[in-house]
Amino acid sequence: MANTLTDLIPDLYEALDVISRELTGFIPAVSRSSSIARAALNENVLVPVTTAAASANNTPGVNAPDTGDSTVDNVPVTISKSKHVPVRWNGEETKGLENAGTFSSVQADRFYQAMRTLVNEIEADLWLEAYKRASRAYGTVGTTPFGTAADLTDFAGVLRILEENGTPTTDIQLALGHAAMGNLRGKQSGLFKVNEAGSSDMLRNGMTDRVMNMAIRHSHAVGMHAKGSGAAYVTSGATAPGVSNIALVTGTGTVLAGDVVSFAADAANKYVVGAGVAAPGTIALNKPGALMTIPTANALTIGNSYTPNVAFARSAIVLATRAPAMPKGGDSADDVTQIVDPRTGLAFEVAVYRQFLQTVYHVRLAWGFRAIKSEHIALLAG
């Protein structure tokens, strides 16, 4: 039967009106890719990433120098997840709720929970991807940022990392967890003063648009990173500046992706591990890698567990979403429609399947994500 879902549109939009108020700081802050969205599930799409170029002296001659070749790197991105949340009713359940006059509201709430599940999973995926692929970290592990009144050093510190890495400054985002946002609201009174901040947003709405050219986002997904158990690791061989892979010997325990580490020869920089080890072996720091020479037999220190707030350029993280792929001729769904969330831009597909004495609705989405430029991501550790 055509247009089966037409009567449900008000319930679906009522649900969206609720879900759009969830604290989703990453979904609206990352870049969206239509080319990746066209890929099949688990099919790689290679995103080209250029590398730094070297200069050369200008020397007059008959011919132009035979130079200028470069290796263009790439980062594979896939549509890695295709999920649905079912909402099923049988005839007796429907009749009972209709008699009580509550069917419409309960149904809207169930659609709300279905979309909430998908939104929260995507938000968590983006947070995990962002912080585990960040270049370096700023802040004191275990201490929530912005805790000192009238002190904006945390903004300046994380922004400095991005600027040192050459991050474009046109669209920088800073996604904060609940604790950091609480300190921002409770401690940084300068943001409440309209004559100093230039805006009444923090005072009236509890949010501020931009600080030091960073768009402030609030994400429910930001949580704790539990450090690895590694201890007594030292380097094997020297590591030159710009190199990411560092061999470790004589230590024990795990070094995990997302751990914040430092070296005895470079204690000032807090590097983020992109690939760890469970025994002596080679870890990989996220790009741009080591900032100075790390000598051989140099001690590695793993920072404590921490809460990773994330600053990044919008272009550094890619999100692609689409409806799950359908076979030629479609499947057994009676009707399919899409509802677009105006706050996050996510388009949920809703399909209805009629069964024996019951009907099930599938709220579904396929998505992929990847941090494609670690140099343009930094952590504000708490």
Number of domains: 3
Structural class: alpha+beta
Shape: globular
Percentage of residues assigned to helices? 10-25%
Order of helices and strands: HEHEEEHHEHEHHHEEEEEEEEEEEEEE
How far the N terminus sits from the C terminus, by CA atoms, comes to 55 Å
Unreliable residue runs: 200-206
Largest sheet composition: 12 strands, mixed
What is the alpha-carbon Rg in Å? 25 Å
In percent terms, what proportion of residues is strand? Answer: 25-35%
Secondary structure: number of strands: 20
- Assembly of the depicted chains: single chain
Overall residue-averaged pLDDT value? 87
Number of helices: 8
Protein name: P22 coat-protein 5 family protein
Organism: Aminobacter niigataensis
Q: What does this molecule look like?
A:
- With 382 residues, this protein is of the alpha+beta class.
- The chain folds into three domains: 6-46 and 80-130 and 319-370, no CATH class; 132-224 and 309-315, no CATH class; 234-303.
- Helix content is 23%, strand content 29%.
- The protein contains eight helices and 20 strands.
- It has helices at residues 9-19, 34-37, 91-100, 103-132, 153-164, 178-187, 194-197, 201-205; strands spanning 31-32, 45-49, 73-77, 81-90, 136-138, 172-176, 210-211, 214-218, 234-235, 245-249, 260-263, 266-275, 282-285, 300-302, 308-313, 317-322, 335-340, 347-355, 358-371, 377-381.
- Strands 5, 6, 7, 8, 9, 10, 11, 12, 13, 14, 15 and 20 form a twelve-stranded mixed beta sheet that branches. Strands 1, 4, 16, 17, 18 and 19 form a six-stranded mixed beta sheet that branches.
- A hairpin with a 2-residue loop joins β11 and β12.
- The chain starts with 8 loop residues before the first helix and ends with a strand.
- The model is unreliable at 200-206 (pLDDT under 50).
